[in-house]
Amino acid sequence: MFSTWWRKRKTKDRTLPEHLNVPWSVADLVAFVAAWFGIQIVVVLALALLGPVWPAASHFVALATKGDIGASFALDLLDAAAGFGLVALYMRKYRVGWSAVGWRRVNALKGIGYVVGILVIFVVLSNLALDLVTVLVPGFNPNQTQQNDFIGAAPQHHSLALVALVLLPPVLEETIFRGFLFPALAKKWGVVWGAVLSSAVFGIAHAQANISIYTFVLGLLLCFMYLKLKSIFPGMLLHMLNNYLAFIALTNK
Question: Which residue segment(s) compose the domain that 190 sits in?
Fold first, then answer.
């Protein structure tokens, strides 16, 4: 009797909502990540190798090394183009549209309601998480300033920094982490673990301890929003709002 109940329970837990039942697999995710970073590395290496014979390439590499705002923005655009391009290839491979990665219409009032409610919850949970890690991990600094080439240059290049930090990342990251990674991981290991794993990757990708914890919590809540609303557009809005508040706080210091 118990074994029958457990099998039914397991089956129920593994049942995915239709919008998360995507055709790509975890193996596709591994290939995607390898290709995404590989493209960026190959381009940078190619520019470095072409430097001796192509002065423009050498000049660009020198600017990027010095943290020049224009060069950094160009690399961000390369990152976005590679990410969106690879997602598009998988959409074509499996003959599905962009709705498969959450680009779906959603009721505006319902979406805004979720954004406001989740933002309040996020502020509470992220501070609790940072406080907990501060207690558990000696030397952890929850107030470490985020390192980014655009923050220092924001007063002189406000519009460029705004696009690079507030507008572009949410569209790209929600498409990849919530629309592409989360469903495939959920299909393999269930919704809860799919949310945890995709949010962990999302946090690690930010490569700074306090920011990683902050974004891990944000990732979990964004997965919840996608699960409930079947669209990543409200998540993009919340992500942009979060980044804008952080942008204002960092550039006004």
Answer: 23-251
